[in-house]
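Batch queue: ligand-bound targets. Current item pairs a single chain with flavin-adenine dinucleotide. No template structures supplied; prediction is de novo from sequence plus SMILES. Inputs echoed for audit trail.
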Amino acid sequence: MTKKYDRDVIVIGGGPAGSTVARYAAIGGANVLVIDGRDPIGTPLQCGELVPSNDEMRRLCPGVPDMDDLFRTPESAISRHSKHMHLVPPSGKPLKFDFDGYVLNRVAHDEFLVELAKESGAEFLINSRVDKVDGQRVVLRNGDSYSAKIIVDAGGHNGPIRRDYWNEKSTKIPVKFVLMDGDFGEAVELHFGSMAPGGYAWMFPKEKGANIGLGIQRNFAKGRSLNQCTEQFISKYNGEVTFNGAGSLPMSGTIKKFVKGNYMLVGDSAGMVLPSNGAGITIAMIGGRIAGQVITENLSSGVPLEEYELRWKKQMGKVMSNSKRSFKLGSLLFRLPDWILNLMFNRLTKGIIWRAVTCRRMFWIF
Ligand SMILES: Cc1cc2nc3c(=O)[nH]c(=O)nc-3n(C[C@H](O)[C@H](O)[C@H](O)COP(=O)(O)OP(=O)(O)OC[C@H]3O[C@@H](n4cnc5c(N)ncnc54)[C@H](O)[C@@H]3O)c2cc1C
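Prediction returned. Tokens below.
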């Protein structure tokens, strides 16, 4: 491959998206450098830590091939295997569903993805923040710079290429969460209503304790702050808080283009979060695999990088557009008073609500 640059590929960010791009690009023979500002990657925790199992992913994203190759979650990164999901309206009376998922140790999970990428041949430079990207050169905060033929921004929704070279805006939902000690049962819970205006709250039980948090849309919150909403929701649970975390989630779904010239966006930087349920880890990895594979085909036989967008649409287009539609409808419905939401969560609507949360068409025409 090319000698004109320091590397074939530089990936900014070694989270689930970046490590997965690196893993598949390196498997295909590319010379890959991942640069990440954190040390270790994945810390501090910024996540609810829930992912569907591989079987559940096959049901949720039927267009995605070979899930077992992509998702190799080791036991050491799983805190609890849950078989049930409760969707809870303000009344607290849940609709109960079968759902096969893992509540992760997210930090161990990110570390595992980094190891997979390294075993495939990718090189990592950590504790090194990228300041900007100039042409084919990636410039670090300390002044060092590296060049590559292809540069991938997997640095989240504020990644440097997304920030400087894309105009499209995404709705971002601010999120706060805690880790709490205690016994919280086995079911994962999503809560909807005025406790999380325009968003939702969660309680995901871990092996010990739980990950509890919520995200809101500020323009729905009628003056209540994220802190107030979080404190109020968390106070429903008994236990000692052992960790406080915060972040924000892109909730507009994918942006229009993931490729410009030799720049590519993957994961949160491309909006690869399902807005109806906040799933971003597995979705970033689906995008990461496609990007990594297309990169190697580009380097070896000139396949255009835009092929990445086409394959994404084929594998995830329907799921993403269903999820966007559900989120828009949810945003309207969740403006309604809690007593109406309580009435709406009933046996007759149970199937429709589940289809909306799991990114399927809610009705035959919609
Ligand atoms: C509070 C919260 C709860 C969530 N809960 C869940 C959940 O339960 N389940 C789920 O599936 N998803 C959840 N998500 C979403 C999920 O975490 C993301 O969608 C996922 O991490 C996206 O992966 P990524 O690799 O694109 O980005 P990230 O995981 O954010 O990784 C980006 C990496 O890029 C690095 N980086 C960024 N900028 C630079 C720079 N300039 N220079 C160098 N390095 C840089 C960062 O250090 C980081 O390591 C949650 C998100 C938040 C904020």
